[in-house]
Design brief:
It is a single chain. The chain has about 230 residues and is of the alpha/beta class. Helices cover about 50% and strands about 10% of the residues. A 4-stranded parallel sheet has the order 5-4-6-7, with helices on both faces. Strands 2-1-3 form a 3-stranded parallel sheet, sandwiched between helices. The longest helix has 18 residues, at about 20-35. It starts with 10 loop residues before the first strand and ends with a helix. About 45% of the residues are buried.
Length: about 230
């Protein structure tokens, strides 16, 4: 049984993009405060320059992405974080390579989404995110372990969605035309039998809300933040 009078665990955030990390941090603090007055858990965030990550991601150098996350974990551990989260879906391809070497445990964003999808009874979901994420193993691996099929858009749409994420969303630009493009991609998922859509870039929930989607949304950013709150209370 959780000890409700115990201090919650210190949460470490290994940030990659600022907008996604900010949404994750705000969710932890705001929802933590709503549960227990002003008493959200202690949170420490560490962020290397995004260029360090993007140089590696664009080269598909996942070991370097993993090394950066491991360095963040080391810094977070030294200031007392009990566990770490990374509010960046794409970077989890690097995290998968180094997770076992980390000085503190990690919650895994795709595993949390797969758990939520299974809890809701979904058997087939669509995935939106960067091209590296949509074409990579992070979500298919986590979803397959739960018996859930994963669908991605066709090649041209993947490229356009990825470009909109990297050229607009990560810089905090959210336009009506971009929202409409994402909505059209979700409509295709509905027509092909998907039961929900994973917003698998941590900025997409700032663009697409539940009322903007013809399918139920699986919000990776807030789901990870809520998982961190649960873990902090254990």
């Amino acid at each position: 049984m959780p000890k409700h009078d115990a201090m919650p665990k210190h949460i470490g955030i290994a940030a990659v993009t600022s907008e996604g990390a900010a949404l994750c941090y705000r969710t932890i603090c705001q929802e933590g405060e709503a549960r227990s007055g002003y008493a959200h858990p202690e949170v420490t965030l560490h962020n290397f320059p995004l260029s360090d990550y993007m140089n590696a991601i664009e080269a598909e150098d996942w070991p370097t992405v993993g090394r950066l996350l491991l360095e963040s974990a080391g810094k977070l551990a030294r200031v007392g974080a009990a566990f770490a989260i990374c509010p960046d879906n794409t970077a989890h391809q690097g995290l998968n390579l180094v997770r076992a070497q980390s000085p503190i445990p990690w919650l895994h964003i795709a595993e949390e989404i797969a758990s939520l999808a299974a809890e809701r009874g979904y058997r087939k979901v669509g995935l939106l995110g960067t091209r590296w994420l949509m074409q990579g193993p992070v979500y298919p691996t986590a979803l397959e372990a739960r018996g859930i099929a994963c669908e991605i858009p066709e090649s041209e749409v993947r490229e356009q969605i990825s470009a909109l994420i990297m050229d607009e969303l990560v810089f905090g630009r959210f336009t009506a035309s971009t929202r409409e493009y994402f909505q059209q991609a979700i409509q295709v998922f509905e027509r092909t039998g998907c039961e929900a859509v994973i917003l698998g870039c941590t900025e997409i929930p700032l663009l697409i809300r539940a009322e903007d989607s013809v399918l139920p949304i699986l919000d990776s950013t807030r789901t990870l933040a809520r998982a961190a709150l649960r873990e902090a209370a254990v």
